[in-house]
Every structure is written in structure tokens, then in C-alpha cells.
Design brief:
The chain has 356 residues and is α+β, with helices and mostly antiparallel strands. The protein is built from 7 helices and 19 strands. Helices cover 24% and strands 28% of the residues. The strands form 2 sheets. Strands 1, 2, 3, 4, 5, 6, 7, 8, 9 and 19 form a 10-stranded mixed beta sheet that branches. Strands 10, 11, 12, 13, 14, 15, 16, 17 and 18 form a 9-stranded mixed beta sheet that branches. It is globular. Bound molecules: pyridoxal-5'-phosphate (PLP).
Length: 356
């Protein structure tokens, strides 16, 4: 039998933790819903995927993931519409990106059936965990790790694919103060920057912490070779509105994560007739634009916050302040439109919504 036809094995919790969870007081990533999805790749094939109670897993201490870092993940959200339907935003993009990351990290690819139907089944079983308050959502974290208990340096033979979910409240980021990073590097050409790999996050922690100690919220990463071109902001893509043109670093270098929020914003902007440029962008160009009053808006883009407006850019010891983000036309409009599409309030012109 082909794995595409395998049904999910389902083991439900004896008693739900739902009533012990304070939905008015959620910390991102702290509370987890009752169930999780697990599927194992062993002997060259995927096992029957299982939905089971969320709990600890047992693995060999020699598992490759602990030693050589074959670990990738995804992040998406389930939203509740006004009439109570559960909606996913472009989950097929997460599926494709997970497998693009898997190929780069030399890992087994996850079958579409397990990813897409697994998430739908899981959300359906834990549907009461999708918050009812507008703006709140159920964060979905699919991930893939190398599970082979073998210390030899080679791609693992076995993998574990899992999905856990976490109810989250409205992400209120306020505005962010960012520092242009010229010493450390997130990703180099030829490296794994375009993969959603755990290792990219590990490498970013020290530089981010250092910037926080200097009073910044986040970094603006620059290219590894010259530190003159802008790449991303923290764990988000970055966009600038300069003189009426929306500019974002192009994906060509292979050092930038192809964000789904990034793609959605670019699609909407083009649809609205805005001039859009995906290209290399120098730090100096942005600083010049600030000095000449031509930088209209600047923001991070990602699933967690959707849009995180930048209030200040620190560059070579000088803090450059941007205008008040409440007055920014484009970013406020695109945030509102995206959030309306996600909860089924706005027409889904691009076929972005999948019902659970
Ligand atoms: C996940 C991620 C993003 C944003 O991607 P979305 O699909 O929009 O959530 C941007 N940059 C990095 C480094 C990321 O890991």
C-alpha cells in the first residue's frame, strides 16, 4: 500500500487540558494543545502517521539531530472565521518550503498527504484550542529531525516528522528598533540561509542578544561578504517603501528565507498597482533615503507579527528615527487586508485559504 493511502492512527487524550489553559493570558509558545502528529521515516519509507497525546518523546542519545544539527521547521497559523470555520493561510507553501529545506539539509522529504492531511486532522481534533478572540490564532509548528542513533557523519537514515500546536494571542510587537549588523552573519552564499533550518536560529542568538544589550530589539542582517547589502530583519523578511516604491532584497543570493508573508505582501502590492522591486539594497541607500526624507515606511514581515514596523535604525553608532508608523498608508493597509483574508472577512482573490 502506498503511504498516500495510509489512514492516520488516532489516540486521543483521556482528559483534555483545555479547561486548565487560561486563554486570556497566553505566552507565545508556552501552552500546547492536547494532541500532536508523529510520523517516522525508517527503512526508506514513512510509517503510518499517528495523532497522539502531546507528550515527551524517546530518542537515542546518539540521534543525529543532537550532534550534527539536521533539523528544520515550519510555522503557520489556524484562524477562526466569524462563522466558526477554521482556516489555514497558504499551508501548501509551508509544505513546499519544508521539503525545499529538507533537500538542502539532505533529509527525507515529507509526503504531501502526511503534511497537509496530518495538519487538518490534528487541527480538527484540537479544534477547541483555536482561540475565539479575533486576532488570536493557533500557531502550528511542523518540524523534521534526524533520528538515526548513529554517530557517523553522514545524512541520517531515519527521520521523525512532528506537528505541535500552540494557542497564541494577538502578536503585539509595537514598533521595533533595529541595528545594522556589520560583524556577525546570518547566512553566507552557498550556505543554508534559504532553508528554515534550526541551525540558522542557533547562529543568530548571540548577535541578537548582543544587540538587545545595546538597547535594540532586533538586527538588520547584512551580506556575509561585504556587510553592505541588507538581507533580513531578525527572523523576518524586510521591506522598505522609498519614494513610493516597495523594495525588498531579492531571493537570488540564496541567503534569504523565502517568506510566505513576504510573497503575499508583494502579490498584494503589485495587485494594487504599487511599484515593486526585488533587488539588492545597500544599507547606504536606506540611510540616504532617511536623510532625504524619502524613506516612507520600513518593516519586518513574517507569520508571527505579519508586519513589524521599524521605528529606529541604528547604523555605525547613529540612531536614525523613522516617521510615526501609525500614519503609514501601505503597511497599515496590507496588515489589515491580510488579517481580513486570514479570517475569511475579505474575499480570497488569490486562493490563499484552506478550510480545515
Ligand atoms: C520563517 C522566517 C521568515 C518569515 O517567513 P513567513 O513564511 O512569512 O513566516 C523570514 N525569515 C526567516 C529567517 C524565517 O525563519
Amino acid at each position: 500500500m502506498d503511504v498516500g493511502e495510509l489512514e492516520f492512527e488516532i489516540e486521543k487524550v483521556e482528559s483534555s487540558r483545555l479547561s486548565q489553559t487560561d486563554f486570556n493570558n497566553l505566552t507565545f509558545g508556552r501552552e500546547f494543545s492536547d494532541h500532536m502528529l508523529v510520523a517516522d521515516f525508517e527503512n526508506g519509507k514513512w510509517s503510518r502517521p499517528k495523532i497522539q497525546p502531546f507528550k515527551e518523546i524517546a530518542m537515542s542519545p546518539a540521534a543525529c539531530v543532537f550532534h550534527y544539527g539536521q533539523a528544520i521547521f515550519e510555522g503557520l497559523k489556524a484562524y477562526r472565521s466569524e462563522n466558526g470555520e477554521l482556516l489555514l493561510f497558504r499551508p501548501e507553501m509551508n509544505f513546499k518550503r519544508l521539503n525545499a529545506s529538507a533537500r538542502r539539509m539532505c533529509m527525507a522529504e515529507v509526503p504531501e498527504h502526511i503534511f497537509m492531511n496530518g495538519i487538518k486532522e490534528l487541527i480538527n481534533i484540537d479544534r477547541d484550542w483555536v482561540p475565539k478572540t479575533e486576532g488570536h490564532s493557533l500557531y502550528i509548528r511542523p518540524f523534521l529531525i534526524a533520528s538515526d542513533g548513529f554517530l557517523g557523519v553522514k545524512p541520517s537514515s531515519n527521520y521523525k516528522f512532528m506537528v505541535i500546536t500552540s494557542p497564541t494571542s494577538k502578536y503585539y510587537s509595537g514598533t521595533v528598533k533595529v541595528k545594522v549588523e556589520e560583524k556577525y552573519t546570518r547566512a553566507a552564499e552557498g550556505g543554508i540561509g534559504a532553508a528554515k533550518a534550526a541551525a540558522n536560529y542557533a547562529a543568530s542568538l548571540l548577535p541578537a542578544k548582543t544587540a538587545q544589550q545595546e538597547g535594540y530589539d532586533q538586527l538588520i542582517w547584512t551580506d556575509a561578504k561585504t556587510h553592505t547589502f541588507i538581507e533580513e530583519s531578525g527572523t523576518m523578511n524586510i521591506m522598505f517603501l522609498i519614494n513610493g516604491t516597495l523594495i525588498t532584497p531579492s531571493l537570488e543570493s540564496g541567503t534569504i528565507l523565502p517568506g510566505i508573508t513576504r510573497d503575499s505582501i508583494l502579490t498584494l502590492a503589485k495587485d494594487w498597482g504599487l511599484n515593486v522591486e526585488e533587488r539588492k539594497i545597500k544599507v547606504e541607500e536606506v540611510i540616504e533615503a532617511i536623510k532625504n526624507n524619502q524613506l516612507e515606511e520600513a518593516f519586518g514581515a513574517g507569520t508571527a507579527a505579519t508586519i513589524a514596523p521599524i521605528s529606529t535604525i541604528g547604523y555605525r553608532g547613529v540612531d536614525y528615527s523613522l516617521s510615526k508608523s501609525e500614519e503609514w498608508g501601505f503597511s497599515n493597509k496590507v496588515r489589515q487586508v491580510l488579517s481580513d483574508i486570514k479570517i475569511g472577512k475579505s474575499k480570497d482573490n488569490f486562493g490563499w485559504i484552506t478550510k480545515v
